[in-house]
Amino acid sequence: MKSRRTLVREVLHRGLLSSAAEVEAALADNRVRVNGAVVSNAASLVAPGDAVHVAPMANRFVGRGGIKLEGALQHFGIHVGHQYCLDIGASTGGFTDCLLQHGAAHVVAVDVGRGQLHQKMLTHAAVTSLESQHISQLSPEGLRSHWGPGHHGLAQIVVTDVSFTSLAQLVPHIVSLSCNGAELVLLVKPQFEADRNDVPVGGIVVDPQVRQGAVDRVAEAVNAAGCHVHGQYESPISGAGGNIEFFLWATVHTDE
Questions:
Q1: Which residue has the higher pLDDT, 191 or 240?
Q2: Contact 117, 129 (CB under 8 A)
Q3: Hey, where are the domains in the chain?
Q4: I need a labelling partner for 169 at 20 to 30 A (CA). Which of 135, 137, 208, 214 fits?
């Protein structure tokens, strides 16, 4: 009997999707079926003879993050057209795709992972992909070199979707990559901002006060960096595991 593989490995082995991040997104959207039954556990074991099916995405973005960001852009009334954008924590590229569909001139997509960005984004002429790179490794000079001939300044719009790190700690560097007047649309994930003692086993933050405290912590870091916070917005869809997430909208007030 041939050995079984985890669901993620089997989906990739069969060529049904091209990256582990895409598989995780499909699992989160309940688009993966094994022998006709929906499976959401990436570690589930699959035999070579099992029927595995991945349904197409129900939304028009390459990742569900696009739904989140579009909700925030519409709620805050942010216009992306002809702007040069920085996507921090790009993953499969849901935010990047959303920015492009809303008219962005160019998007620099940064992620610490490798092989996650959807092929549609990798081959898009208006996208520069920086894989295996922590945002702290990107200097203002380095960012300027990635826009192409149409722009030589810093980012005009910055969007973030980072995990397993505190966004509040990244804010000063994010601001250093942003031009004066740039708009920041920051996705706050309470489980990575709250005190450890306030995050239950399993990582699902259910206390509204803890959630708001996490948002306030990031907002304080943004204000301390010389920016103005305009407001917050609950993401239209939850994050991994059902965590409620929030967007912060701010404007940068600093010289390039």
A1: 191
A2: yes
A3: 5-54, 65-252
A4: 208
